[in-house]
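Let us practice reading a record.
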Amino acid sequence: MQVVAEAVGTFILMFCICGIIASTQTTSGEVGLLEYAATAGLTVIVVIFSIGSISGAHVNPAVTLAFAIFGHFPWPRVPLYIFAQTFGSTTATYAGKFIYNLKSDLVLTRPLQGCASAFWVELIATFVIMFLVASLTHQAQSVGHLAGFVVGSAIGLAVLITGPVSGGSMNPARSMGAAIVSWNFNDIWIYITAPTIGAVGGALLFQFLKTQHRPCSSLTSPNTSLFHQSLDFRAT
């Protein structure tokens, strides 16, 4: 059920992205980056509260790998989660293509200011998001359900700053689904490697800072997973 939930969650995320891209197409560009970022952020909030208590609402292979590397997610489930996330993204892109009569190329994430700029902005944005997620996981009891809104807001902000440079992916499944549907894998390596490196780096930095500073408060127990009520990144 956890794997199915990941597929459903990624489907919801990608279908909403297809919807806002279709709106941009039909309104001749009147729906812009701000609306796109808001859609991404709000959809993440919806997904977190929908499937968080079931699967942890990773909906991102980079997040899954980062949690697995640092022992917060079982390795045997990593391939299943990544497959489910990619499957959900691909089927959502197919659905968006036929429902909205959307050209699949429009859903692709492409470097808009060169490959190097796209790589670094994707890496840095995912680094920041994962650092935030790791921090929220660490202090889940004190943050509680607010964490869903915090993560969604962070995603929206990240899309705003990455959109003009890379298209604002930060999610290998999001980019891979569109690449599979359009069968265009140009520069896909950027959207697989950069978010993965960024997510692992963000988790690594927080892990390092946490070991250097251990607060006395029981509210920040390192054994607490994010949104125990609505999210469980350990998914055990």
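A brief commentary: The longest helix spans residues 2-26.
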